[in-house]
Each structure stands twice: as C-alpha cells, then as structure tokens.
UniProtKB/TrEMBL annotation, chains A, B, C, D:
One of its GO terms (molecular function) is metal ion binding. SUPFAM superfamilies: LDH C-terminal domain-like (SSF56327), NAD(P)-binding Rossmann-fold domains (SSF51735). This is Diacetylchitobiose-6-phosphate hydrolase. The keyword Manganese applies. Belongs to the glycosyl hydrolase 4 family. Keywords: Cobalt, Glycosidase, Hydrolase, Iron, Manganese, Metal-binding, NAD, Nickel. The record marks E113 as: Increases basicity of active site Tyr. Its cofactor is NAD(+).
Length: 445, 445, 445, 445
C-alpha cells in the first residue's frame, strides 16, 4: 500500500516560484496526496517566506485540499522524515546573479545565469550549500528523493551524485517546454508525440521526433529551418539558420544560442546592457518586486499570470509530474538529469546527463539512445562536460587549479589568460560565498 | 491516424501453437485490430496448416471479430505489405529436435532443444531459413516488424540484426512467465510489480524485484531459497539451493538449471531416456498428435486447455502484447531480445540481449540497468554470448572452424575433443538441412 | 634475411625539405641501406625537382654511398615495388597556404597552416590527393609502408586509415623536437630520458618526464613555469604562465598556444600582418626562394644550415629513424600517429592519435598510458578530434554539412554564423582544388 | 646516476628454486649489481634456508662477485630499504599442494597447483600472506618493486594491485619458455623473433609470430598442427589437434590443456594417481628431497642440472631479466602480469592481465594488441577472469558467497552442487591456513 501521508520539504520556500509549485500540488492532489508541506528558507529570506507562505495558504484554502502548510526557518525540521525534498535556492540571491552576468561582460564574454562563467560562479557558490543539505537528508530522511531544481541543475546533480548518498534527480523546465512547443507545432496532444532528448542540462539536443507513432525527424528539421525554433523567456530569440539545422541533424536547445551564435548573443547582451545599464538579473529583480506586491494582495488566491514572465513556465508541471510518477510508480517517460552509466558512451559513467527516463517508484531509469551521437554533437558535449567535471571538483574542494582549467577549456572562454583574470575577479567578488576557497585565495589572489 | 487494416503474416502457421496466438488476437482485437491474418506454411506442413486453419476459422467465427483468415503456402503473398510478420518455424520438424536431444546424450552431454549442442544444431538449421524470410520482408514489407518466436530466439535475433535490415524483435514466453509466477508469489497483480530481467535468451537473471514500488529483492531471494523457484513445463524441476541463490544475488531462469545443476540435469535426462527410450521431443510429438486430434473436432471453437502442457503458456500473451504495444505506441515495459548497444557494457554492442524495454511505435527502447552485473553473472553470460557469436558465424557462413570453437567453449561441452566428435555427428545427421556446410563438409568430415 | 636493396619513393620530391631527408638517408645508410631513391613530383614542380635532385645527387656523390637517385614525374613508376613511400606534398603550393592564413584573418580568426580554419582548408585540398596516391600503393606496392609527413598529418593519417588499406604512419617533427629540447633542459642524452607524449598531431601534451629512470614530472613542471617552454620556428614564442602549467599538469605543445593563448596569438599575427602585409607563408616563400638559389650552387654538397629556418629541423631525423626502426625491427620507442584502438579510451577506436609507440618491423605498436587523461586534457582533445572526424568526412565526400559542423565546433571558430561565412570563403577561394565539392558548391554557395 | 648498491629481498628464500635465482644474479651481475641479497624465510623453513643459503654462499664465492648474502627469519629487516622484493612462497608447503591436487580428484575434477579448484585453494591461502608482506613494503621500502613469482601469480598480482599501493609485477616462466621453444622451432635467436602473447597468467594465447620481421603466424599454426606444441615439465604432454589449432587461430599455452582437453587430462591424472597413489606434489616432494641432499654437498658451487626437472627452467632468466631491465631502463619487451587499463578491452580495467610490455625504469608499459581478440579466446578468457575476480574477493574478505560463485562458474567445475561440496571440503581441509574464513566457516560449514 502506498503511503497516504506524504511530507514534502521545499528548500528555498520563499522563492517567487513557489506559487507555481503550490498550484501544481493542488491540481494533482488526487494523484499525489501531500499531507504536510514545509516551506523552509534562511533568515535572510524570512520576509519573502512570510509573503509567499500566506499566499500559499490562501491558495490551499481556496482549493479545499487537505494540505497542511508549515513555514519554517529550521531546515532540519523540514527535512526530517520527508518523502520528497525539493530545492530551489539561490545562494547570494539576485545580487550575486547580477554580478555573475556583469563580471564576464567586463572581460568581453557572455555573462549568463547558468552558462559559461556566470553559471560557473553560481556552481561554486551553490554546490557546497546543496551538499550540506544532502548531509541533513542522509541523516534525517535517508529514503527521501531530492528533486533538485536549483541551477546550474546539471552541475548540482553531478555533485550530489558524486559526493553524497542521497537519491536525487535534477530537473529543468526546458525539456517539458520543448515538448509542449513541438506538440503545438504539430497540433497534437503530447500523448501522441515522442521526442528523444539527449545531452546535459541546458545543452541538450532533440535528436528525434515521432508524431502519432511515425518517424517525423526529417520533416521536423525542415519545419524548424528558418523558424525561431524553441525559445525561453530569458534567452534572446535569434533565428536558427536553415542549413545549419539541417547539417546539425537535431534541434539545439535554447541555451545553444550562447554557443552556436556566440558573437551575436554577446553583441545583443552587450548592447542591451549598455543601453539600459541592466542585465537579466536586474530585470528579474523588478519583476520579482512586482510579483511580491501582487502576492501580498489578500484577494489573490491563485498563482498570478505574471509569474510566467519570470521564466518559470511549466516549473510546477515538471516538478509535480516527476514526484507524482515516482509516487505512483507510473512508468511514463520524462527527461531528467541522472548519472550516465553508459547511456551516452562517449561520456564518463559517473557524470550527470539529461536524457529520457522511465519514471518508476525507485526513480528514473534511463533509456538507450536510438542512434549514436554524431561527432558535431559529441565534441561540444564532451568539452562542456569536461568543464563541468572540473567545476564540480573546484566547487567541492576549493581547487583553484581545477577552476582555472575549467574556465580555460570552456568554449565561451577558451583562453588561459582571459580565464585567469576572469577567475580572479569571480573569486574576489564572490569571496563572501566561497569559504572553500578562503585559505587558497589568500595565497593565490 | 493509426492504420485500421492491419495485416499479419504468421510464418509456420501450421504450428500447434497457432491457436494460442489466435486466442490472443481475438481477445485483444479492440486494441489491435487485425483485418487480414495470413497463416503460411511449407508444403510438408500443408496438412497441419489445414487442421489448424480450420480451428482458427471456427475460433474467429465464434468470436465475431472481423478478422479475415487466409491459409497459404505462398510465403511471399503472405508477407507482401504485412505490418507484422511472426515466425514460429521448426526446420526439420520434431524429428530434427529429437536428434538434437539424442546426439549430445550419446556423447554424455545434455541434449536440449535450445541450450547447448541441441540448440546449436537448431541454430545451424534455422538461421539460413530465417535470413531467407528476411530477404522477402526487405523486399515486400520493408516497414514490417518481424516478431521472432522461433528458437533459439536469441541466436536468431542476433543473426537477423547482423545480417539483414529487417526491424526485428526476439520474443520468448519465459520472461512473461517469470513475471506471472513472481506476481503470484506475492499475491499482487502484475501492474503493481516491477522486476528487472537481464541477460540473453534462455539465460537471463532476475536481478531486482519491486512490489508496489518497494524494493523487495532481498526478501525475494529469501523467499526463493529452497523453493522450486520459477519453472517451465519442459524443464526438469529441481530445487535451488538456498545458499547458492543468496550468493548469486539473483533468480536464475529455468534454463540455468542446465548450467548450475549440470550433473543432476544430465543424470535426470539420461535416466528418463534410458527408462522410456524417449526424449522431450518424442513426448511432444505425442502431445502434438493428441492436440491435432482435438483440433480436428468441429465442436472445438477455442484453444483447448491441453495446449498448456505443450509449453506454450503465455505465448499469445507475449506476442500479442508486444504487437499491440508497438501498434498503440504504448510505452509499457516488456522484456524482449534487442541489439545491445551498450546496455550490457561487458558484451559487444552488436549482439542480441534480453532486457527490459519500453515499447514504442518504433519498437523496443532498452532500459539502463539499475546496477552493474556482478562477476558471477558477467562471466557466464560472456562465455555463452561468445559461443553465440561463433554460432551465428557458423550458421551464416557454413564456417566449420567457428562451429568447432563455438562448441568447444560452450560450458556444457568445454572440451575440444568432445566438441569435434559431437560437431561431426551433428553435421552428418543434419546434412539434409545444412546446405551452407555442404561444400566444406565434403572436405572436413 | 633482411632485404638489402631497398627502394624508397619520395612523393613531393621537389620540396625544399628534401635535402634534409637526403642528409638523413646518407648518415644512416649503414643501418638503412637504400639502393634506389625515387624523387617524384608533379609537372608544376618539375623545375624545383631538377634543382633539388641535382643537389641530392651531389650530396650522394660526396658521401660515397651506393644510393641510386631517380628523378621522375611518373608517380606510378616511383611507387612500383617500393618498400617505403614518403609523402611531403603541398596541394596548391605556398599560394594556397597564404590564402589559408589570410582568409581566417579576414574573419578575425587565427589563420595557421595546420590549426583551425587554415588547416581545415589544407585538409580538404590534400586528403583526396593522398587517397589517390594510396590507390597506387595498394596496386603497385601493397607491402610498402607509407610514411606521411604531409600536413595536417593527423587528419591525413586518419583519412588513410579509414579509407584505404595502405599500411601508413603519420609523422611530425614536433615530438622529436620536444624530446631534444627537454634533453637539453636537463643536460642529458636522449637515451637517458623518457617522456610520455599523448594527444593528436599538433595537439599533444607531454604528461610525464623521467630522467635517468627517475620520475621528474613535478620538477619538470616547476622548471617550465615562466620559461618559454618548447618552441617551433614557425610559432610565435609566448611564455606560458606558471600557474597555468601547474594546473594543467602537463607541457602543452607549441601549437597549443593557438588555443590556450588564442587572443594574444591572434593579436600578434594580426599586428604582424598589418605591419608587414605578410603572413608566415609569404615569408616562407622568400626563405624558399633563397634556399633554391643556394641549392643551385654547384659547390654545395650538403644541406645548408639555412634550411633549419624553414622549420624542418629534425625532419630527416624523424623520418629516417622511423624507417630505420621498421627495417631493422628495432623495438625502440617513437612518437607517431596511429589508429587509436583503445589506447586513448575517451576517443573512438578508429581515429588517429599521436602517442608513444614501439617500432617493430610490422610498424608501430602503441603503448598504454601511464595515467588516465585528466578532464582538462580530455575535453579539449575530444572536441578537436570531433572536428577532425567531421573534416575527414567533408574532405573525402565533399560533404558541405560535415564541413559546416566541423568549423562550427572548432574551438578557434565556435560560432555557426562565422563558420558559414568562413566556409563559403574557403570553398570559393579553393575551388580549383576541391573537385569533391564541385557539384554541391554550385548549389550551396 | 643509477644506484650501485642494490638491495634485494627474496621472500621464501629457502625455496629449492633459489639456486636458479642466485645463478641469474651472478651471471647478470655486471648489468644488475646486487650488493646485498637477503634470503628470508619463516621459522618452519629455517632448515631449508640454511641449506640453500650455504649453497648460495658457495656459488657467490666461486663467482667472485661482490654480493653480500644475508640469511634471516626477520622479514622486516630483509625488506627495509630494499630496491626489489621477490616472493616465492608456498603457504602450507607441499603438503597443502598435495591436498589441492587430491581434493578435486575426489570430486572427479582436475586437481592442479594453479588451475581450477587447486589454484583456487592456493589463492585463498596465499593472498592474505602476500598482502601482509605488502604492508611491510609500503612501510619499509615504499619505492621497491615487488616481483611476484608466487602462484597463482595472476590472482596474486591482481590482489596486490587492488588492495595495496606496492608497485608490483607478476612473473611466470611460461612466456619465456614459449619464446625459447618457438625460437628453437624456427632455429633463430630470440632477438630475431617477436611473438604476441595475450591473456592472463596460465591462460594466455600466442596470437602472432614474426620471424626476422616477417609475419609468420599462418606458417606457425601449420607447423604446430599435430605437433606436441609447447610444453611444461609439470603438465601432461598431449598433442593438439591440427584442425582445432587452425580454428583457434592461436597457440594455446600449456595450461590450456586442462580446459581444451579436460576429459583426457582428468583421465590421465586420475590413472596416474590410481596407479601410483601420488600426485605431482608428492613427486615434487621426492625431487625436492633429492635436491636438498644435492644442495648439502660442500663441493657443489653451482645450480645442479637436476633443478630443471623441478619445473623452474628459465625462472632466474625471467626474474633477473625483469629486474635488470627495470634497473637499466632498458625498454625491451617482456611478457608480464600487469593491471589491464584498457589493453584487453573486453576485461575490466582493474584486473591483472599477462601481455607484452616494454620494461622501463618505472616498470612495465603494456603494448596495444595487434588485433582484437576473436570470440573463442574472448569467451574463455572472460569467464576465467570473472572466476579470478570472485576468488580475489573471497581470499581478501573471507567471503563464502564469492568463493561459492567463483567455483561455480569455473569451467573446470561449472556446477553449483559440485562447487559447494568441493568448497566445503577445501575450507575444512585448509582451515589452519584460512583465518579470514574462521568466523564464517563456524556458521556456514
């Protein structure tokens, strides 16, 4: 018999995304009967937690679902005995993200939340905190699944898989968005469509499309050519070149624009920054301020449509679908981040990958690929994964050498002199959040 | 839109198993709407085809399903434009099987239909005929799936995968039987159970059992110890030793008894043969004769219960479930024979394996293993697979050297002197069915 | 008994490098007794062949060695029955190289003979010609070894290995130069030193140094830090950063400067070009003109010291050492380009790699690596190798899609828009040398 | 500068083989200048140590070489600061070996010192003692090479590689014997011959023969057919079948007779035992008694020719050649036991294999194979290696389950019921030597 009194702990519960999640938990309550929902945050997030928590309570009340909501600053209390722990934290908050975006720009490099040097800095700040959470889970809820939504989700998942015993799955709303947009393109329900997604978080390719059981990959590539393709709210929306897509033989993900259209993306970001003095983080801050004003309105008892602008579309969909499928042992296919174990044979066994998995009660089981990866996908995937492996080591051990090599081989940096100056800037401006580099940085900076 | 006028060709349609299949096609007709069903056989099987075909027609009539039945000796007509081609052929018929069982016994070795020297001889006879069928499919029904039920199913699937372009899946009723018996053991419906099966046809292990989403593998091994475990109608039913099962860490399949209990199995077979003068094939002949008498009775309009004794339990279940899931793009998990492609990393990529697969409209997608295989499973699996690789080469090319080495390294032979004498006997007694060895055998025998 | 009447065919015999080779063949004649030496060139190189051939004859005469020299424009005559065929061709001659260097510069990218877009264009021109030579060897000298000195040597070796049956080894003077410079650094003879070189042509790392049997890798990295390291005549000589070398844990090769110091290298090349209007090819043309004037002097009977400036230092050393070791079945260790076959497990089996090999009469046997490659080496190596795989396909099949993807993922390009414009320029300006792209380019350009 | 004061520790110095080793150390003293030679043994071997030590001293005196001989029962004193530690121990002495040979016979299985159940029991006794020696080496001579001659040498090398940090090489006289016999067959000096040996200790194949730089493998297989092939003093000398050798495509090693001619070998051993009441160990005891009588003769100042009968031919050759090549950083090719690391891709990376290696000052560097292994070699190799992996675990951890599975999958056992009875016998009769099984065996036996 399945447990009917589920406990969920949401680490970073004061996030502006939380109403998304609450909405999903309410909508799917029949199939995923949460009894106790803990929203936990740190002291600095107490005020946001209060606002979000009050809205969450109003949403639950309006739904009539028997979900008991708990707001707390005591992480261990939240985790103790939980069935699922979700994380959506932002170490250093949006100010840190703003720096992540600006420091690379000062070196004439793309500054982005999860990709390149920005994502690198975020990983250094975030991974030690997540591993600390994992220690609590190992002690207080050893059977819990950790559903990690915290970015950079691939790097975080890999760190957890390498340095803890927690059962964890890394999750992103990009695959589910891709699916929805392709379904829309073909005018079919998702259930009549199957797509093969392969790669790593924020660097995956859609290598196959089947509609109603028919192979449509060639047709799909034709359709895509020249179109704007799949996009995300937070990524400038440049068109893909038809010939390029055909020669690639797959649909790149939205974040691929930072690689394949590096020059133009840099130019756009730079122009925008120079024109407005703002990066995406600065704009998100404004959106968030507005959202929190909305959240405070006592009449609001559902997630406001403005939340979509924030970039969190389908977030609850992805998270609740995953937990629901684990809970119900559903056996449906979702695209999540898991340990490789030979599924992508050109990558090491112990790294995190983002692929189609069957979701069972013991978590995701990856599906074998329909075709071997062609060299154009393989090469880019391998070099970015090597960057990720080095970044995980740097983040866990405060290893300056690994950090320097990580940035040096990253395709968006690719120069050791640039990498070194950039790294020193990142370490200095993040020094309050990088205790693991403290001792070393005294020596090396 | 899915095609509503499915055509199925059943090669070897005169088989005594056919009523099983008809039964399944009738039961699942709503979800797998067969319009045209061709039963095809060779001249020598014309009489059996008539008997079986008449019964099939009566079964269809009684069901009221709109299935149009065609009986034919023209294989190309049956295959042309088919959506699915199933094979259930027996080259040399039961007389050949009887020899397969007796020749090894004369060398003091286990003689069995699919395992060891018996299965080897069957592979030599069968693979060229199957590849010939594949040529017809490539020409006349290039989009058809071939569902291969012909034994030795793993060897046949591997040969088809290596030497033809036909989309084929190898199928066996052993995995589905194992699932049913474990479900019964736990008193749960199959839908609340998940087991992980890994290996090759007739040599797979059940390495994991989950009941209602809970890990029960340890409990399952405890339960098994001392019990008779999973059995098949055609395999002597010896008890597994408790300590052995615990040390193995998995449930062996029924055919493993020929390996792990080699001595006792040989003794039992030998004693039985000496006492009765009969091997299993001889008994099956009698069962078949009775079955055909039954089949002839005009009042019979359903498959008779006696068919189960024949060993075909769940045959229709396995075959129809697979075709139904492909047709409906179901995405459920079934255990079938597919090309390895890295799923079992200790075996070559291009060999056939038997593992859990998600069944989509384009066929099976193998699932990654939960755990790496332990050495005790790996070693036996590898040596038997090497035997299979050699056997495929021997069967396709009439390669005496490959044949000699295949038998020499087979764990049930394992001696080159024995292997050579045995091989020469097998080639001589099967000479009418082995044109590929003709030229050579003139020289080598 | 070893053959005492060796025949060598030198394809591209009119090269200014040839006196180097003649010098080596004379010096080592006792151990590598060449009887017939064919210098062969194309019609357009007839004059240079005459000049070089005359010098070669004077060198041989002065040496008193019984080498019979043959000058010919008939390639098949030269190859027929040869024991070794060396290639040192330059399709399109130095004018093409000059374009290879200038076209990328026009796109603000590094233009270099073998690395990046320049090497890519050279590969497209060269590979079909080399494969044509291979057809002659397959027919006229099937037992011959082809010693390929033609750049880009790694790409050419891979193409030969994938698309011909000729026994070939790719050779470069960079490993032997590295060895000599490290031996000098330590003041020991090469025989008391062992270094481990691993990677691909013009992108290898020295990962280990042993002096007199002692592990000195750490000491070596210390020594290197801040020093200019190993250099080549044709590569700007920038210092490596101490911390970078330590974090890399290996000595990069000279060509690594184009990757690790991309920005500074581009700046230097650009400044030099803007100041002088010349690239390296233009300067080499001048050096060559001077060399050929020297070569014409009847009094000259040895290779002139000016040849070193040309960049060919140790060329004869590398080539003659290799042929001598094959001929004598020496079993010494040399660093050459061979098929991978698992030696570098993170690369495909069928690609060319540059590693330490034991040289026996049947050619090179690669040595296993002392340590797995760290991610910083692995990632860069993998992406450049993927570029090479695509480039080989593009060169052999005139495949525009492969060409576009090759340039897109190359770390010195890395942007699809840039790659496309660059590719179209390269194809257009090389159209006379790329018959394989003819048909397509009509459509795509 | 190389060290000129080498210290060697010989663990098991009282062995009858020691005069072989002394002979080698004297002969090669110029190139391998041993200054201090420690023969160490346990209390029970004190008397043999005295006899052998006295002979060794007389041999050294007669040679005039400046080798200082030390006899001791203090292992730590012998190991402290040693440059090389060789092991040639026999836990339980010849009585234990006699049991190893007889217990399997009682179960109608081959009983042999290193192969099958006998070698298994020897591994259980020996591995813990060797790992104990390794702890001393790690502490007292961390830079020393351990040259392991103790059987089963492959299993012991694998255990050391997996469970200690000692630099070790496993050594056997079988490869060097094979080389000598093939050289004799062709009437050439070994220096003009190259053979490729691949596999694991006592289960390797000679897959390639080159004479004077020419491929002679086909010719070699022809020559072998019908001949007695390569033999060892201690293995019954049955002829290989011509057709079998051709189909195998390689020369099996002498120990392969236990596999490929299992039945005949068992019959021969059994007949011999029944006729004489003796196994090989019993005969060796007699040979040893005679040898020790010889050793005692004061006039004897060299190794007596009778020693060859003992089976130790070329032992000193193999051991001293290896140490000499390490000491002199020779770079010659020898066949030794090392960690796999991808050289045999069908085996795990961390297992011991026996292959051609270049011997440098840092030890052996394995050479890549000329050709992938064919299935007939691969399958047998894999199953025996899986047995070895399980046996190492059983020996190190006293793991009954691993022991039971090891015997079950061994091709010379291959039946779980037989394996269990046999294992219980082996554990009981060796109980004094298997402290690691003590606790368990109380429960399980």
């Amino acid at each position: 018999m399945k447990k009917r009194q589920l406990k969920i702990a949401v680490i970073g519960g004061g996030s502006s995304y939380t109403p998304e999640l609450i909405d999903g938990l309410i909508r799917y309550h029949d199939m995923f009967p949460v009894a106790d929902l803990y929203l936990v945050d740190i002291e600095a997030g107490a005020e946001k937690l209060k606002v979000v928590g009050d809205l969450a309570q109003r949403m639950i009340d309006a739904s009539g679902k028997p979900i008991k909501l708990h707001l707390t600053l005591d992480r261990r209390e939240a985790i103790r005995g939980a069935d699922f722990v979700t994380t959506q934290i932002r170490v250093g908050m949006l100010d840190a993200r703003s720096r992540d975006e600006k420091i690379p720009l000062a070196h004439h490099l793309i500054g982005q939340e999860t990709t390149g040097a920005g994502g690198f800095a975020k990983a250094l700040r975030t991974i030690p905190v997540i591993l600390d959470i994992c220690k609590d889970i190992e002690e207080l809820a050893p059977d819990a699944f950790m559903i990690n939504f915290t970015n950079p989700a691939g790097l975080v998942t890999e760190a957890v898989s390498k340095y803890s015993r927690v059962k964890s799955v890394g999750l992103c709303n990009l695959p589910i968005s891709t699916k929805m947009q392709i379904a829309e393109l073909y005018g079919v329900p998702q259930t009549e469509m199957y797509i093969e997604i392969v790669g790593i978080n924020h660097l995956h390719w859609t290598t196959r499309v089947m509609i109603d059981g028919k192979e449509m990959t060639g047709d799909f590539l034709d359709k895509l050519s020249g179109a704007k393709g799949i996009s995300m709210a937070n990524i400038p929306d440049l068109e893909w070149d038809a010939e390029f897509i055909q020669s690639l033989g797959a649909l790149p993900c939205a974040y691929h624009r930072y690689y394949y259209m590096k020059e133009e993306m840099l130019r756009e970001i730079m122009e925008h920054y120079e024109a407005t003095g703002k990066t995406r983080a600065d704009e998100v801050k404004e959106v968030e301020a507005e959202l929190f004003e909305l959240y405070k309105q006592p009449a609001l008892t559902s997630k406001p449509p403005q939340l979509e602008k924030r970039g969190g579309a389908y977030y609850s969909e992805a998270a609740v679908q995953l937990m629901k499928s684990i809970y119900n042992d559903t056996g449906d296919i979702q695209t999540v981040n898991v340990r490789n174990q030979g599924i992508i044979p050109c990558l090491p066994d112990n790294v995190a990958i983002e692929v189609n998995c069957v979701i069972k009660s013991d978590g995701p089981h990856a599906l074998s690929l329909s075709h071997p990866l062609p060299p154009q996908i393989r090469g880019l995937l391998q070099v970015v994964k090597a960057y990720e492996e080095l970044t995980v080591e740097a983040a866990v051990h405060g290893d300056y050498a690994a950090a320097l090599q990580a940035l040096t081989i990253h395709p968006l940096v690719g120069d050791e002199q640039t990498a070194k100056a950039l790294l020193n800037d990142l370490l200095e401006q993040n020094s309050g959040f990088l205790p693991q580099f403290q001792v070393r940085s005294g020596q090396t900076l």
